[in-house]
Every structure is written in C-alpha cells, then in structure tokens.
Amino acid sequence: METSKRFGDAIKKLYTAFYNKTLNPECCKQCAVGNILDQNDSWKHLSDHHGTTELNYVGRVHQLMGRRFNGYTPLELLKIESVFLKACGFQIPIHYKNQKPKNPTNPDILFKGLSEVVRYLCRLDRIENVMDYTSIFKQQSTAKKTLKL
Predict the structure, then answer these.
(1) Gap between the Cα atoms of 122 and 89, Å rounded
(2) How deeply is 13 buried, as exposed, middle or buried, from its count of CB atoms within 10 A (0-12, 13-18, 19+)?
(3) Coil/strand/helix, residue 69
(4) Dihedral over Cα of 95, 116, 45, 18: its sign
(5) Distance in angstroms (rounded) separating the CA atoms of residues 144 and 37
(6) Longest CA pairwise span in the chain (Å)
(7) For the whole model, what pTM was predicted?
(8) How far apart are CA 94 and CA 92, in angstroms?
(9) How far, in Å, are 106, 127, 145 from residue 34 at the CA level?
C-alpha cells in the first residue's frame, strides 16, 4: 500500500513517541499533534482551548491561506488532537473541571488514543486503516477453507 509522505512521517513519529514513552495527552509538545509537529507547541495558538476543533482568528487565517504544518492543515491538526484526547478518555476541551482519565499516560489508554489517531489519519489520506487486524483473520479463514483444514 502506497501512502503519502505526511502519513508515513506522522505514523513514524507517533509510534516512536509511544514506544519511547514520550506520548503525553496533557502536554502540547508530547501529545499526538505535538509529536507530529516534532515536539513543537506552536500549534496550540490555532485555537483558544486544548482539544477543541474550533479555529481561533490565527487558526482561521492560516487555514484560509492554505498553510500546512508537516502536511496537515490547521483544522486537520485540531481534529487529530480532538480524536486523540477523546480516545484517551478526556472530556474536551481540556479544562480542570472536565473529566479526564486517572492515569493519562497509561500505555493502554495511550494505545487507544494512538489507534484512533491512526484510523483518522488513514481516513484523511483515503487509505485502508493500517490498524485493522480483522482482514488478517478473514484471510486466514479463507485460506483454511481453501486448504480444507
């Protein structure tokens, strides 16, 4: 399967962050988007609240200008972060009064977030979900029927 450069780069950065334990949903440099943007937190100026998908004035200007950050538009970046935070169990936007997981850096929680982000990135690039393991079982089932095991 052929993928875009932005997709390949994003996946590599996210997996590296997950396995190096540098994926943290509460840190703008170590969250999903922070890692996609090379541990940079400048993306947080695209909206007024962490986790929202609503662009502020600065974000709208960048969006209208066609600006891309490592291949992603401001709106795509906010959506990526929103998907990540929701899958990790956060009520968004992030606020001290809103619900959050007890241990947001728990590997199981982070894996859920990572999986949802990968699914969303695949949808953005119009490719099959690379995290979908059900096709493996379908292929094995078909192979067993063919081999009459």
Answers:
(1) 21
(2) buried
(3) strand
(4) positive
(5) 44
(6) 63
(7) 0.86
(8) 5
(9) 18, 23, 46
Instruction: Kindly report, residue by residue over 113-137, the tens digit of the pLDDT.
Output: 999 999 999 999 999 887 776 766 6
**Residue pointed to by tokens 């490592």:** 70
Can you name the residues that pair with 72 across neighbouring β-strands?
Answer: 69
Helix (H, G, I), strand (E, B) or coil at 66: coil
* Tokens matching residue 47: 């909206």
What the block records as the tokens of 126 is 């119009």
Q: d(Cα 21, Cα 107) in Å, to the nearest integer?
A: 8
Strands (E), the chain: none
**Strand, coil or helix: what is 80?**
helix
Residue bearing tokens 């996946």: 11
70: left (phi over 0), alpha (psi -120 to 50) or beta: left
**29 CB neighbour count, 10 Å cutoff:** 17
49-72 confidence digits (pLDDT tens): 999 999 999 999 999 999 999 999
Chain position carrying tokens 């972060």: 81
Q: Would you say 15 and 57 are in contact if contact means Cβ atoms under 8 Å apart?
A: no
For residues 53 and 107, give the distance between their C-alpha atoms in angstroms, rounded to a whole number: 25
DSSP 43: G
